[in-house]
Amino acid sequence: MTQAIRSLFALAVALFALSLTSPARAQDAAAGRQKADTCMGCHGIQGYQASFPEVYKVPKLSGQNTQYLINALNEYKKGERKHPTMHAVASTLTDKDIADLAAFFHQYGAKDIRPAPATLTPPPPPAVAALIAKGACTSCHGPNLSKPIDPSYPKLAGQYASYLATALKAYATEGNPYYGRNNAIMSAQARQFTHAELTQIADYVATLPSELRTVQNPRFR
Ligand code: HEC
Ligand code: HEC
Question: Using a 6 Å cutoff on CB, does residue 210 contact ligand 2?
């Protein structure tokens, strides 16, 4: 199957399965497990690539902070994060679905995840260190970029480089109807850098030891 067809197929499966999920289960990771089948066509395949607005890897979700996952899904739903596919997916989810899915992905495969070292290891090359200092990235995302000061902020260390670069460019984008992220904090951050600098930061951050994973769904092996 081509990637486009595979994505559409995954989405169709997602929408169908979501229509079957029963309401009023306890809000927990086990309920999220049922609902997450629908996400696995994209988030359960190692290195699976999205092609809009450019080719990049679908982000790792396992190990990510629960509250951050909840916020991100709500932002796609409301259009504060513009992304046609994730908007379509998130629009079908209730608040409870979102909470269950976030609880599930936070712990899915997490027993295999070792805590990242406390500081940036290996340290950034001087040019990248200057960019990270300019943006004070560690003041919010933690001294290792994996220990955010608030659970609504994401872990970044070891996330896919191409996704990090796409996300950073999205925060810097204004006025595009299909693409861009409105977030007061991160938009101000990203706009002080060139795209080349954002890519340099992303390439380095992706090399850091990570508490994030894409857990391969056995069905898609
Ligand atoms: C057709 C493919 C596809 C499906 C199905 C899909 N996603 Fe996504 N997801 C993506 C892509 C691509 C992105 C990155 C979007 C962007 O650039 O902001 C993404 C981003 C996300 C993010 C943001 C992660 C971050 O680090 O900010 C979350 C959370 C998420 N998806 C959860 C889900 C959940 C939960 C489901 C199932 C209900 C799901 N996705 C289904 C492709 C998909
Ligand atoms: C003042 C606190 C703060 C600072 C400083 C900061 N960030 Fe963020 N960052 C956030 C918050 C909050 C979010 C979540 C925004 C959202 O919900 O979209 C975020 C999100 C991100 C994301 C999206 C991750 C994903 O999974 O989609 C990236 C990438 C990122 N930050 C990189 C950086 C980099 C690189 C720097 C330094 C240049 C930086 N941040 C500085 C608070 C901060």
Answer: no
The average confidence (pLDDT) of the chain is 90
Among 9-13, 65-69, 104-108, 178-182, the range scoring the smallest mean pLDDT is 9-13
∠ CA(9), CA(182), CA(86), 5° rounding?
Answer: 10
Nearest-CA neighbor of 44 among 17, 62, 71, 32?
Answer: 62
CA distance 39 to 146: 24
Structure-block tokens of residue 144: 């290792």
Band of the pLDDT at 110, cuts 50, 70, 90? confident
Q: Identify whether the C-beta of residue 116 lies closer than 8 Å to the C-beta of residue 181.
A: no
- Taking CA atoms only, the protein residue closest to ligand 2 atom 29 is 164
State the pLDDT confidence band at 218, using cuts at 50, 70 and 90.
confident
Residue 23 has pLDDT above 60, yes or no: no
Ligand 1 pocket test: which of 2, 39, 73 has the largest number of ligand atoms within 8 Å of its C-beta?
39
Would you say how long the chain is, in residues? 221
Query: Rounded distance, CA 212 to CA 69, Å?
Result: 12
Place of tokens 């260190």: 129
Q: Which pair of tokens denotes residue 58?
A: 């679908």
